[in-house]
Structure prediction request, 1313 residues.
Amino acid sequence: MALKMVKGSIDRMFDKNLQDLVRGIRNHKEDEAKYISQCIDEIKQELKQDNIAVKANAVCKLTYLQMLGYDISWAAFNIIEVMSASKFTFKRIGYLAASQCFHEGTDVIMLTTNQIRKDLSSPSQYDTGVALTGLSCFVTPDLARDLANDIMTLMSHTKPYIRKKAVLIMYKVFLKYPESLRPAFPRLKEKLEDPDPGVQSAAVNVICELARRNPKNYLSLAPLFFKLMTSSTNNWVLIKIIKLFGALTPLEPRLGKKLIEPLTNLIHSTSAMSLLYECVNTVIAVLISLSSGMPNHSASIQLCVQKLRILIEDSDQNLKYLGLLAMSKILRTHPKSVQAHKDLVLQCLDDKDESIRLRALDLLYGMVSKKNLMEIVKKLMTHVDKAEGTTYRDELLTKIIDICSQSNYQHITNFEWYISILVELTRLEGTRHGHLIAAQMLDVAIRVKAIRKFAVSQMSALLDSAHLVASSTQRNGICEVLYAAAWICGEFSEHLQEPHQTLEAMLRPKVTTLPGHIQAVYVQNVVKLYASILQQKEQAAETEAAQEVTQLMVERLPQFVQSADLEVQERASCILQLVKHIQKLQAKDVPVAEEVSALFAGELNPVAPKAQKKVPVPEGLDLDAWINEPLSDSESEDEKPKAIFHDEEQRQAKPRQPEADEEELARRREARKQEQANNPFYIKSSPSPQKRYQDAPGVEHIPVVQIDLSVPLKVPGLPMSDQYVKLEEERRHRQRLEKDKRKKKKKEKQARRHSALHTESDEDIAPAQQVDIVTEEMPENALPSDEDDKDPNDPYRALDIDLDKPLADSEKLPVQKHRNAETSKSPEKEDVPVIEKKSKKPKKKEKKHKEKGREKGRKKEKKEKKPSKHKKKKHRKEQEERSADRKKSKKKQPAGGGAAEPVENGSLDEEPLPPMSSYCLLAENSYIRMTYEVQGSLQEDSRVTVSIVLENQSSSFLKNMELNVLDSLNTKLARPEGSSVHDGVPVPFQLPPGISNEAQFVFTIQSIAMAQKLKGTLTFIAKNDEGSTHEKLDFKLHFSCTSYLITTPCYSDAFAKLLESGDLSMSSIKVDGISMSFQNLLAKICFHHHFSVVERVNSCASMYSRSIQGHHVCLLVKKGEKSVSVDGKCSDSTLLSNLLEEMRATLATC
Amino acid sequence: MQFMLLFSRQGKLRLQKWYVPLSDKEKKKITRELVQTVLARKPKMCSFLEWRDLKIVYKRYASLYFCCAIEDQDNELITLEIIHRYVELLDKYFGSVCELDIIFNFEKAYFILDEFLLGGEVQETSKKNVLKAIEQADLLQEKTENMYHSRSFIGCKKSILEY
Prediction:
């Protein structure tokens, strides 16, 4: 597009325009900062001028500087000035600057409220647009609250350009001011069916975003979105809708079932990768949410995996990456389908893109099995060697550990192999994950008893090999493994082949270069080692050797005593004293080994990390109760801040109990011992504390088989772990052969072996050594954890709002009112007492009342569940009676109703009324004519009964009539139980020629604030002499707001109280050109709009009605010369305004 | 979408649009971090990376990097399409756009972006409509601001789309 060249008319009198600035900056590369500070000074001068063009130019330059990272917050006020310029050129720049640099902390932002409001209502759509765009960037809670109503109005703007912007920005408003969501939601929902595709897509966007955060509130929109999904061809919209369904399905599995088909169709048909990817993702989400008992969905999974394979095989790195990403989601639920593509994943491990390799690594996690673990880890180990960056290598390392340790080392068949893998990993240079390896070593050595011997031998080798210690300063990460090594060698020293050598290794001077916490472990475990050596030597009666060891200790320990680390120092000096004491005893030939070993008697059990949390609170213990009563807040309030510390100190100091005498103390001690003895959680110093809680199947009961050491531990020339792979293969081979043999011999035995040894169904590999994983200790009756970690700071949580509840009056959006305009508009306002105070009490009472009524109604409903003809007739009769009553009472009224005396309650006039019927035509064709009437029922709120009179106008016999409507979200046809939303409701009678009958249908309504239209169809079979034909008749059911009202009498005092009590909102209409008499007018309102007259004085009457949802509607009807004004008050403003509009239509015909 | 950044091969920021409220300090920190991370990536690498709890989608057009941050649930491919669509819009508007166009007319680049995205969501999926809206808004603009044609004197002929 060639740009229109527009010649400038303003001479460049200002010093620099934006282009000059940019060019200047480019020309001052050396002293950019200086140049810019000079420019900022100029800008400051320009901002002081009155010329708005100069100011705008300055602000434009500032916006550019802001992007370069300069602070321009000082110019916020000038930006507002430019925003409020009347010319679009400047306004645009002002809003751009504001959107770039305003944020919630900008204090002048509240000054913009009125300007923005003005711009929003500007006649130029671009002014409005620019204001909306700007607002979307810097909306604050205050702005959102003040402008919500204005923006909501814009959602119904005539121009789609504004509508779509308003709809989108509403989302930002909801985030900042969640109270606006409910009032605005109905309109937002309407926009889903906006004629303009842009607006529609905006509404989909917003609702999708809302629903993703709090899906449960949007379940009721599913049918609508389903319709949109099947009809829309816009991929942008489709992606959003499909994403929305992904969020909804976990809550409604039935929805998922319905989705599978259209989604798989899309997967097959679409050429857009983004849509395909979204569909696959949602199908995965759906399948995850569906219970596994869905056999026919394996096809969908297969399809997804297939498509993903195509993505992964694509040369486009992006598709490859996403394919792997999606694959890992499938992996979680359908590992088998993914495992089939192991080749592909392993191939991706060699990809040149690191992020793809990492994704492939994620997948590997789920692909390992007992069978392939060694092979996969071997491959990873070669990658570790090749990896260039430390980040990727570290990632590999953690992945290897993750893969091996997952679900309690489920896939490891040979722990010797695993230990040697860990040992090999210690040779990695510069890794950060030393502690991870250390933790694994400790975990395995502690929990896999059978491996301890092997582990100890490996660890002592580690301690001996200097490479870790030597370079500890540079490679600080990896020396962590020494922590584990030292501890394992000390704790399980009985397995050491040459304890003396290890002891020497641990006492080397080099050790003092290690970090303090590792040295501390060294010191402590040196003693353990020493104790076991001592015992050994004494048993062998080698006193001299024992003394030598002691001497070694006495010589070497001082190096630790000098340590700068407190822990090391303290431990070392304690131990040094101990050893010196032992030395003295040894000199006297006293056997000491027993006593020294007693220091470390007992065994440590692994305790689950959550164990402490899960100890149930014993009965009668109230953790919230104060142990000591807190001090009363006697201090005056203003001193509080100071008092905090003071207070605390006192609290600690105060609860000193009077000292108990000796006897009391002894008694208590005894009691405590008793209690400890009975308390299973108390860790005692007795040699085998764990015995107590192993009555249940525990460690002791698992048979432990010794490691088969017939296999040589070292094969020269191969790294350790590789040799295990080889051995493992051989072993498996042997096993297989053996099994085959056995199979032939004894079948029963094999069956038993299966059940006893292994529960894994897919694997027949028996582990090399029978491994018992010591399960982590949990306290008895541990409580199931209920971790509901919802982030309280989540900004979207505030939007978790039930949208289906009818709007309460208090939820209106704040509307800015002009005081003058208001008074001039409704001068009658003074007539009606307006009480601002909220007093909700009467409302509440009423609610209770209603609830009771509802219960009764429900009971009744149960009794009369099957709508029989009887009931209908009765109903009809009642209705007739009622209207007859009304007529009667009308007649009873004394003549001259227009007189001054107030007429209370009831209907009034003396004049004969024109015949009125509330039945109106629904639809008709040559066969049938339908008229209908909508009536609210008091028994069940939110339900209306539609009575349809069907009249056969033909000579055919009509049968199999079925009525069906397309439910809207708000209004739904009550169908018999078990039928779906697409099923029709049969009409319970047939129609011979010329006959009419009435059928009733119940509809449930959610919100009654707006009138509704429902499309429907009546299908029937017309049978005559020539045969029978299927026929149908389409119709539109109109639910006016009036039809939700129920004529309810009200006494004048109650009426007055009502006006005083609630915070009713008010609205009024005026209709000119009325010729009808006031009485007839009132009668018409009574009849057509279900009101009753409360009081009437001259040409003024108050009327009352109630909605099926319990809204009170009060009217004040006044007749002027040729006009009627109606002032209404209602607890729901939307309902009221809609009612008045309907009334206007009625009155216009009078 | 949480934010969009445009920066050059040299790490100079050319455009930034934030759809989440953040302090200036935080913005600067994020920008610095992302520019570094993205520039460090090799050309053959895929366009996505995980960063903090967000996903970064970026694409290089000539010397410019377009970089968007999206949430975990968002679709990476559609974000790439958004980026591409934006580049196309710039290209149509400037008539084969180059980096200098965006530098010298950075406010126009913002206006186009604002017509295309609002609050981080796609506002208008039709290219034609976006350009129409911009053109008409430009017509409203006082006929003072002369479109600055960098091409005319710098001799930049190739659109960034063609790289």
User: Anything to note?
Assistant: The longest helix of chain B spans residues 76-94.
